[in-house]
Amino acid sequence: MQLYLKFILLLSFLTTSLFASDSKYWLVEDFQKINPVEKILSENFNTIVQNESVPITSTQNKPAKIVIVYPGNQLSDYWRRSKLSFQKRLDELNIKYNLVDYFTKPAALREQSKQLLKAIKSDTDYLVFTLDIKKHSKFIERIISNKKPKLILQNITTPLKKWANKQPFFYVGFDHVIGSKMLAKYYLENSNKKGSYAVLYGTNGYVSSMRGQEFINFMNEYSHLKLVDSYYTNFNKEKAMAVTNEILDANKKLDFIYACSTDIALGVVEVLKQRKLIGKIKVNGWGGGSSELEAISKNLLDVTVMRMNDDNGVAMAEAIKLDLEGKNKEIPQIYSGDFKLVKKGINQKTLKEFKDRAFRYTK
Fold this sequence. Notes:
By secondary structure, the chain is an alpha/beta fold. It has helices spanning 2-12, 28-34, 36-50, 78-92, 109-121, 136-144, 176-189, 206-222, 237-250, 262-274, 290-297, 310-324, 348-358, and strands at residues 64-70, 97-103, 126-130, 150-154, 170-173, 196-201, 226-232, 256-259, 282-283, 303-307, 334-336, 339-343.
């Protein structure tokens, strides 16, 4: 208990802003230019992820102990699908493992910290976590300074420069900047590059910076669209509804609302339905999970970037397999999965093909 309280105090006094500038990160392309072998490793590893599973060749003396701490208490099914695809691929690979998972709300730092500390004290082999709010950073630094557990950082594909050669075991996810630029290009094509828009962020952290601020930067560079409002919503649907009402009250002429997550997008949709503004003000999803695809099929959402979701869990399982086989040099530092742009009115055959690939383990 005393160790836990010391840790909470340490986080509370952490004031270094991790997210003030994108220069703190290596984007995937830049990281591969600096480390040319990474591009080759990534291509070879992606072939493994896309192919059928090949069981582990080495003998395990004991089951691998894996702990997952996910901010998965959201409407988005990304985290739940990630866990399920991860487990199913581990099973196919004949890897012996014991898995413990904890799901929290996105910004539940105290609960996340408690579970992470438990994982460290229980001699965990692999720990799967994320990095969003700046207070996660100090704890992550503490983990990567030790040999155990090996840390998989999910939902982040941009290594931190300050960690230099002392990086986590594996970064895995779907690059937020790539997805946001896909959405930005959609809005540019459907707005004549003029008009006004609002942005609804999640928490004040990494994901909002990469999805939201990068979107705004792109719009500023390539259009005359004016940002008239922006709010942080903590990835909360009800808060997204409240601020959407505020935005619409203050801005009578609005072309679209850019939403940084599923929960936010569905909150915006509820307000647009209430105000009979569906089809008049565009709104996007982010991630392309089941609830977003259903909203698109009902013409409630205009567009989303759909992650090929299950590749995420498969990549984590395959990285662990290579590690257990002593083939660490074949594991890339980053695995960044693919997106598909899904627009309202999409051909149903095409959408089925996307779903079959994205949810190949979690249908």
